[in-house]
Protein backbone atom coordinates (compact mmCIF):
# COMPACT_ATOMS: atom_id res chain seq x y z
CA UNK A 1 0.00 0.00 0.00
CA UNK A 2 1.40 3.38 -0.98
CA UNK A 3 0.17 6.31 1.12
CA UNK A 4 0.84 10.03 0.85
CA UNK A 5 1.81 11.09 4.37
CA UNK A 6 0.88 14.73 3.78
CA UNK A 7 -2.76 13.96 2.96
CA UNK A 8 -3.15 10.33 4.23
CA UNK A 9 -4.58 9.39 0.82
CA UNK A 10 -4.07 5.89 -0.55
CA UNK A 11 -2.18 6.20 -3.81
CA UNK A 12 -1.78 2.55 -4.80
CA UNK A 13 -2.50 -0.95 -3.57
CA UNK A 14 -1.13 -4.37 -4.43
CA UNK A 15 -2.29 -7.88 -3.63
CA UNK A 16 -1.39 -11.49 -4.37
CA UNK A 17 -3.33 -14.74 -4.21
CA UNK A 18 -2.64 -16.59 -0.97
CA UNK A 19 0.06 -15.61 1.46
CA UNK A 20 3.00 -13.50 0.35
CA UNK A 21 5.63 -11.53 2.21
CA UNK A 22 5.25 -7.76 1.89
CA UNK A 23 8.68 -7.23 0.34
CA UNK A 24 8.21 -9.99 -2.25
CA UNK A 25 4.79 -8.59 -3.10
CA UNK A 26 6.30 -5.12 -3.55
CA UNK A 27 9.08 -6.47 -5.78
CA UNK A 28 6.78 -8.55 -7.98
CA UNK A 29 3.63 -6.44 -8.25
CA UNK A 30 4.44 -2.92 -7.07
CA UNK A 31 3.46 -0.29 -6.22
CA UNK A 32 6.69 1.12 -7.61
CA UNK A 33 7.58 4.63 -6.60
CA UNK A 34 9.94 7.15 -8.18
CA UNK A 35 13.57 7.22 -7.06
CA UNK A 36 13.21 10.68 -5.47
CA UNK A 37 10.40 9.66 -3.07
CA UNK A 38 11.40 8.69 0.46
CA UNK A 39 10.11 5.39 1.85
CA UNK A 40 9.62 4.99 5.60
CA UNK A 41 9.42 1.28 6.34
CA UNK A 42 9.68 -1.14 9.24
CA UNK A 43 12.04 -4.10 9.60
CA UNK A 44 9.91 -6.26 7.31
CA UNK A 45 11.45 -4.32 4.40
CA UNK A 46 15.10 -4.53 5.41
CA UNK A 47 16.25 -5.60 1.92
CA UNK A 48 14.62 -2.58 0.33
CA UNK A 49 17.44 -0.13 1.06
CA UNK A 50 19.61 -1.87 -1.58
CA UNK A 51 16.95 -1.28 -4.25
CA UNK A 52 15.70 2.15 -3.20
CA UNK A 53 18.30 4.59 -1.87
CA UNK A 54 15.83 6.78 0.05
CA UNK A 55 14.49 3.98 2.25
CA UNK A 56 14.55 4.79 5.96
CA UNK A 57 14.53 1.89 8.40
CA UNK A 58 14.58 2.07 12.21
CA UNK A 59 17.87 1.53 14.02
CA UNK A 60 17.99 -1.81 15.79
CA UNK A 61 19.56 -2.27 19.21
CA UNK A 62 21.53 -5.29 20.35
CA UNK A 63 22.60 -6.46 23.80
CA UNK A 64 26.12 -5.21 23.26
CA UNK A 65 25.12 -1.98 21.53
CA UNK A 66 21.97 -0.36 22.99
CA UNK A 67 20.43 2.69 21.34
CA UNK A 68 21.60 6.13 22.36
CA UNK A 69 19.18 9.03 22.83
CA UNK A 70 19.56 10.33 19.25
CA UNK A 71 18.86 6.91 17.70
CA UNK A 72 15.87 6.46 20.01
CA UNK A 73 14.51 9.87 18.95
CA UNK A 74 14.96 8.97 15.27
CA UNK A 75 13.10 5.68 15.80
CA UNK A 76 10.25 7.51 17.52
CA UNK A 77 9.97 10.03 14.69
CA UNK A 78 9.81 7.20 12.16
CA UNK A 79 7.22 5.36 14.27
CA UNK A 80 5.05 8.49 14.25
CA UNK A 81 5.06 8.38 10.45
CA UNK A 82 4.47 4.63 10.22
CA UNK A 83 1.51 4.72 12.62
CA UNK A 84 -0.37 6.84 10.11
CA UNK A 85 -0.12 3.96 7.63
CA UNK A 86 -1.40 1.58 10.29
CA UNK A 87 -4.39 3.88 10.82
CA UNK A 88 -5.21 3.65 7.11
CA UNK A 89 -4.99 -0.15 7.28
CA UNK A 90 -7.37 0.00 10.25
CA UNK A 91 -9.82 1.93 8.11
CA UNK A 92 -9.68 -0.85 5.49
CA UNK A 93 -10.33 -3.44 8.20
CA UNK A 94 -13.53 -1.60 9.11
CA UNK A 95 -14.84 -2.72 5.70
CA UNK A 96 -13.78 -6.30 6.68
CA UNK A 97 -11.97 -6.85 3.39
CA UNK A 98 -8.67 -7.27 5.24
CA UNK A 99 -10.00 -8.34 8.63
CA UNK A 100 -11.79 -11.53 7.57
CA UNK A 101 -11.15 -14.27 5.02
CA UNK A 102 -12.28 -13.09 1.59
CA UNK A 103 -15.05 -15.45 0.50
CA UNK A 104 -16.04 -14.02 -2.86
CA UNK A 105 -14.45 -14.39 -6.28
CA UNK A 106 -10.69 -14.03 -5.99
CA UNK A 107 -10.46 -12.26 -9.34
CA UNK A 108 -12.48 -9.36 -7.98
CA UNK A 109 -10.52 -8.85 -4.76
CA UNK A 110 -8.25 -6.21 -6.31
CA UNK A 111 -11.21 -4.36 -7.78
CA UNK A 112 -13.00 -4.30 -4.43
CA UNK A 113 -9.84 -3.26 -2.59
CA UNK A 114 -9.37 -0.34 -4.99
CA UNK A 115 -13.05 0.62 -4.66
CA UNK A 116 -12.74 0.73 -0.88
CA UNK A 117 -9.55 2.78 -1.23
CA UNK A 118 -11.53 5.18 -3.43
CA UNK A 119 -14.30 5.41 -0.84
CA UNK A 120 -11.69 6.09 1.84
CA UNK A 121 -10.10 8.87 -0.27
CA UNK A 122 -13.56 10.32 -0.97
CA UNK A 123 -14.33 10.43 2.76
CA UNK A 124 -11.02 12.22 3.37
CA UNK A 125 -11.85 14.85 0.78
CA UNK A 126 -15.40 15.47 2.03
CA UNK A 127 -14.94 15.19 5.80
Describe the overall structure.
With 127 residues, the protein is mainly alpha-helical. The chain has one domain (2-125). It is built from three helices and four strands; from the N terminus they run ββαββαα. It has helices at 22-29, 69-94, 109-125, and strands spanning 2-4, 9-12, 39-40, 55-56. The chain has a two-stranded antiparallel sheet with strand order 1-2. A two-stranded parallel ribbon has the order 3-4. A hairpin with a 4-residue loop joins strand 1 (2-4) and strand 2. The chain starts with a strand and ends with a helix. The mean pLDDT is 80.
Beta-strand proportion: 5-15%
Main sheet: strands, sense, barrel: 2 strands, antiparallel
- Which shape, going by the Cα principal axes? globular
- Count all strands and give the number: 4
Distance between the termini: 22 Å
Which parts are unreliable, with pLDDT below 50 for 5 consecutive residues or more? none
* Rg from alpha-carbon coordinates: 16 Å
The ordered string of helix (H) and strand (E) elements is: EEHEEHH
Number of H/I helices: 3
Name the helicity range. Answer: 40-55%
Into how many domains do the coordinates divide?
1
**Average predicted confidence as pLDDT:** 80
Q: Strand order of the main beta sheet, please?
A: 1-2
Q: How do you describe this structure in short?
A:
This protein is mainly α and 127 residues long.
Features:
two-stranded parallel ribbon; mainly alpha
Amino acid sequence: MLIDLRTDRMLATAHAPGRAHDLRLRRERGPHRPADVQAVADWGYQGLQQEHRLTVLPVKATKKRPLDTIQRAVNRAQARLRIRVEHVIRRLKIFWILARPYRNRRRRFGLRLNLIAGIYNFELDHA
